Amino acid sequence: GTKSSMLSQDLNLEGINDDERTSEFSTKAAEPLPSKEGDTSIEEAVAAHDDVARLAESGTLQDETQLKEPIEASGSGCAAEALVGGESGTHSEVEDTDEVMETEAASCHLSEPTNETAADATTNAVEPVSAAVDTQASSPLPPPRVYSGLRHLNFYADNFVPSDNDPKELMLASGSLHPREPCTVQYDTGYHHLNYCATMDDETSLSINSRLARSEPYWKIVDVLCRRDTVTDIGEPTKVSTKTASCKDDTGVSNPPLSCAMVTVDLAKEGRNSAFATTRSTNEETGNSRVWGVDWGEETKSYKSGDRRLLLRTLPLSRSSKESRKRADCHLWPKGTFVQLKIGDEIREHVVKITQRQQQHHEPKKWSGQSEALDLTPYVQNTDLPFDVKLCCREAVRRQEVQPYGIGAKVTKFFDDGSGEMRPFSGTVVNYDSKYKLYRIVYEDEDEEELTREEVSGILVTKSDHGSEDPPTVGSYAVMVAICEYVEPDRLFDELTGKRVGNFVIPAQSLESVKQKAIESLKQQTISIVDSESDGDEARGNSSDCHVFSLHCPITKTVIDTPVRGRDCSHLQCFDLRNFLHANKNPSAGRWRCGVCQRFLCCEDLVRCGLFDAMLGDLRADVSSTRHKVSFETDGRWKLMEQKKVAKAETLAGSVNSKDRFEPEVIDLSSE
């Protein structure tokens, strides 16, 4: 489990008076006002954020005076306002004014990228992360009304403290290389098309929950506590959540935060309104309430099935293609996250250390390491008191610099479906050739073509059910607080195999269907059958008349018990489901990778192989540590290979692929 420590510090911020420190941020509702002539638009109001993002990206952000240009617009038409029933936080936040401003939706157009940005389009193009399908999720509520509002947040100093692992080692709570003085930042709490603001619509919130459910099946979401009430542009009720927003330092400190967010959770109110907070017993040992079945105030180093905890997690709203290749779509803290917790009306707030990426000394732009969710349960002693979770980060929030409707844009075009009928095929822009100014489109049937900008504009999907589709924002993270229930790997195994009731059961492919696929691949030699010990290359008896499979799991090198593989993997070699679940229990660099081809998989991407089930049923008793290879013939028969034949088959396969493969020599060290 994650062990987090809490440091209490006195609030000592220069230039901040007591009124600012204790005044409440008003949640007064206001009707949107039309912009007056001469008012500054939201585009102009956040222009300073673009400058900060560019400086942070280029590494030239050294003089804190570069951050002192105001982001708020002057004039009565650009004023701050809180959400209706929204982030009514506790109490150290300051409202600047009560007026609001409407903004027009961004017009949808396709622009040609410059040569400079197009050069990186294929390697680091930022695309919206597609939401996982969650059959239990409710339909998303409509987006809130458009508005802009400024708020201030106060943060303690980010000083060196002893490490949890080694008390002699000093580290910063944010994982940064350089400390930061106490500071006050201001940010936009609103909702508008520029995406610099901190409000996230319900559709995005549900997609984030679905992504977390897919990437973290060990923590089932019981109740989400970070959604809050507001209204749409026509006054209908809706719900929104929070994401990190671009911020500006007001105090002129060195190494200032570049983004921030705050989530307020009122457990008493949530408990009264939630259908899931029915367990209201009391812990006999501590006397604490057990609303939602949670042992509030208790810290634990390990979890068992059925344990319920209050977790804080973050997830990037968009990921580059480079990031998608590097790591699975799991919980990830923004770079340099500093977490501050305020409970009730306490004057003293708490700095909470988290397990996150660390800034590297040899390359300051690089942040490496694993991110673990923050268990807030130990810090909540009294569920009748609301609390604020405040985050400030070193990750800049900026608009995508690639063409707004280029990489990742959705298109629809009519084609002949093969029967003479024309039907629409959906596609995605995956690349832009700056030399020939052509966009490469990949359609749902995997056909592709290259089109000009004008041709793409004619088939571009520019509208969603709720309005204009906006380009993704780089560096913004969804902030999610939820009651979650832990599921141990063995229990999850029972759910996925249908032995226990769960949300999903892994589908099985029949013996005949897999046999037919294997036979066809031998005849056509178009499908790569990957051996678990072949470094991703083909391993075949004579490279044409048989496949060679291993009945050993490539993860643990033990006999497979429950054979599974990825639904979209090109190989037929399987790995063991239980081993896969145990191997991915904790955050790691190789988390959720296929045990054979290393592509990313989640539990919902798996299928059970009928062919491997049949081979294991026939040969399991004869499988050993040195004899576990099976040859599959073109007539659909299989047999366990002798060791000499295995060596010969691997030699043939090695000659085809120009690589030598040998069984490891086993030496008995137990004898004298």
What's the SSE blueprint?
Blueprint: E1 6-9, H1 18-22, H2 42-45, H3 47-58, H4 115-118, H5 121-124, E2 126-128, E3 150-155, E4 160-162, E5 170-172, E6 183-188, E7 199-201, H6 202-215, E8 219-224, E9 228-231, E10 237-243, E11 245-249, E12 259-265, H7 267-273, E13 281-282, E14 289-290, E15 308-316, E16 318-320, H8 321-326, E17 338-343, E18 349-352, E19 358-359, E20 367-368, E21 374-375, E22 387-393, E23 398-399, E24 410-416, E25 422-433, E26 438-443, E27 448-451, H9 453-459, E28 463-464, E29 467-468, E30 473-474, E31 477-486, H10 489-496, E32 508-509, H11 511-524, E33 546-550, E34 563-566, E35 575-576, H12 577-583, E36 606-609, H13 610-619, E37 629-633, E38 638-640, H14 643-657
Parallel strand pairs: 32-36
Antiparallel strand pairs: 1-18, 2-16, 3-6, 4-5, 6-11, 7-10, 8-31, 9-10, 10-31, 11-12, 12-22, 13-14, 15-21, 15-31, 17-18, 17-22, 19-20, 23-30, 24-25, 25-26, 26-27, 28-29, 33-37, 34-35, 34-36, 37-38
Helix pairs in contact: 10-12, 11-13
Task: Explain the overall architecture.
It is a single chain. The longest helix is centred in the last third of the chain and has 15 residues. It contains 14 helices and 38 strands. The chain starts with 5 loop residues before the first strand and ends in a 15-residue tail after the last helix. It has an eight-stranded antiparallel sheet, with no helix packed on it. Strands 7, 8, 9, 10, 15, 21 and 31 form a seven-stranded antiparallel sheet that branches. A four-stranded antiparallel sheet has the order 24-25-26-27. The N terminus is likely disordered. It is of the alpha+beta class and 672 residues long.
